[in-house]
Amino acid sequence: MLERLFDLSNVPFRNSIFRSVLPWEWLNEVIGFLNKKSLSMPWDVQELGSGIFVDPECSIHPTAIIEGPCYISKNVEIGPFCLIREGCLLLDACHLGHCVEVKHSILMPGATCGHRNYIGDSVIGRNVNFGDGSSIANMRADHDPDKTIQVEWNGKYCDTQLSKFGAIVGDGCSIGCRSTLNPGTVLGKDCLILCNVSVKGTHPPNTQFASPEAVVMQRKRV
Question: What topology is assigned to 2-209 in CATH?
Answer without folding.
Answer: UDP N-Acetylglucosamine Acyltransferase; domain 1 (2.160.10)
